[in-house]
Amino acid sequence: MPLLYFFETSVEHGGMPPKDLYKLWAEHAKSSCKWNDEQFMKYSFKVAGERTVVGVISVESPGVLDTCFDDFPLPQALGDQIHTRFTPLRQYEGFASDVSERAGIDAKYEEEKVVSKEGILYLLTFTVEYDPAMTQNDLLQVWAEEGRAALKAKKSGVVLDLWKVVAERKVIAVVCVENPAEADRMSLDLPIMKKMGDRVHVECKSIRPIEKWFEDLKSLQNGQ
Questions:
Q1: Can you spell out the DSSP letters for the chain?
Q2: Which residue, of 13, 210, 214, 220, has the greatest Cβ tally within 10 A?
Q3: Do residues 91 and 82 touch, judged by C-beta distance below 8 A?
């Protein structure tokens, strides 16, 4: 069974001339695009304004993580100036089905087809704390309602895709909206925010597809 991992790769600036760094970035982005074509890389994004790439990969075993990026240009050239973290994931549809079953709700979710549309992309990370006033069943009921709403948003294209972090009360989502206000409204309207908002922490990053970054890098290399 393929395993999913969220990755975050950051690059330190070691005094390399900008054009040389742009060239390396371009080669790295090109490799990421190739991985997209080969379906190892499910998603790859550049974090806007940061020397950071994030995404989701699908591999056959955890051991692949030890070498999967070794052939990429940035690690080969910069070595210890590259830092990558991997977080194990599961597709959100499976998690939503599990919590619904535990909550006594008859709901099964199949993986939704990704709906692509133009817009502003944000990477949202939701971390949910336990509320001492809630029983575990109360929490499961909220999670089940949240799952139904989140997957409805995925079906509409507002949520590009989302995943549950394995063994943690954490969800990672990529959303596509027309403007920043829409992202704020969406996060406030989620069932889990309405019912236990003070226990939910959200981190937001502005992201863009690696292919768009690749096009910019080619222009920067040419001095445009």
A1: --EEEEEEEEE---S--HHHHHHHHHHHHHHHHHHHHHTSEEEEEEETTSSEEEEEEEESSGGGGGTTTTTSHHHHHHGGGEEEEEEEEEEHHHHHHHHHHHTT-----PPPPP----SEEEEEEEEEPPPTTS-HHHHHHHHHHHHHHHHHHHHHTSEEEEEEETTSSEEEEEEEESSHHHHHHHHHHSHHHHHHGGGEEEEEEEEEEHHHHHHHHHHHHTT-
A2: 210
A3: no
Tracing tokens 């050239």 back to the chain, one arrives at: 77
Which residues lie below 8 Å from residue 1, measured CB to CB, with a gap of 6+? none
As a whole number, mean pLDDT of residues 140-161 equals 95
Q: What is the pLDDT of residues 177-197, one digit of tens each?
A: 999 999 999 888 999 999 999
Could you tell me which residues come within 8 angstroms of residue 13 by beta carbon, excluding any fewer than 6 positions away?
Answer: 21, 51, 81
pLDDT at 213 over 90: no
pTM of the shown model: 0.93
Q: What is the pLDDT of residues 19-41, one digit of tens each?
A: 788 888 888 777 777 666 556 88
Confidence tier at 116 by pLDDT (50, 70, 90):
confident
Q: Is the pLDDT of residue 117 over 80?
A: yes
Q: How far is CA 63 from CA 27, 34, 67, in A?
A: 25, 21, 8
